[in-house]
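Notes, p. 3: input format for complexes.
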Amino acid sequence: MAVVNGEEREEMNRANEFVDSVGSKLVASLAGLGLAGFVIFHMLGNLQVFEGSDAINGYASFLHDMPILLWTARAGLLTAAAVHVGLTIRLALRNRRGRPVPYALRRYRAASVASRTMALTGSLLLAFIIFHLLHLTVGVIDPSAPDGMDVQGRLDVYGKIVHAFRNPLYVGIYVAGQLALGLHLSHAISSAFQTWGIEHAALDRLFKLAGPGVALFVVLGNLAIIFAVFLGWLHP
Ligand code: HEM
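Output follows (236 residues plus protoporphyrin IX containing FE):
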């Protein structure tokens, strides 16, 4: 029987830890990309508020009329969020203990504000999402919100949105949420290319711009909704 000495055991432990860290990073990245996909889809769906109450309430009732699909998507989102948060916290703790896992490719030399504040923006984003669910999905934050249905008996998503963003308090909270979302997405998407080892000298600049580009697209879409209501362009 082969005898494993202390040095070899240490080497094996290090190798196992490396595989575990790289695997965790890939899974966390995949879950994060799934969440980013949802955020893009959600923003595009919400833009229907500009077409009026019939469009967005019809869209919401179309989604709610497929409970199996809706609850499967919700379960998928919840799982992706739990996996992403759990694994990134675990990796951050491990890195803090002094065993950083390098990217598959080189790191960019100058660290941006977005990259240095990932833990902070991630935590703020999580707090924002919990607030947002309690506010617009569960409806327990704002007692003055219409609890309602529209004249056709559908969930009045248009009414909820318009009621929310006429109030400067919610405008402030949602704008702060967009700031956290923008910074987080901006670094996350560009860094996903490195995590997955996707590199091409000629496309390097494009990969670096993809994160800020997607982040700007999502944040501007969401801000357009918030300010269109606040400035009175969309009304009840
Ligand atoms: C101006 C920006 C936003 C608006 C107007 C908005 C609006 C809404 C509304 C009206 C609902 C309830 C829909 C329903 O009951 O059918 C909802 C649900 C939700 N929102 Fe947002 N949202 C915004 C931004 C965000 C962001 C940035 C995130 C994530 C980072 C997010 C995540 C969610 C989630 C997870 C749900 C629950 C979906 C479900 O299971 O039904 N939202 N949003």
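The chain has a mean pLDDT of 89.
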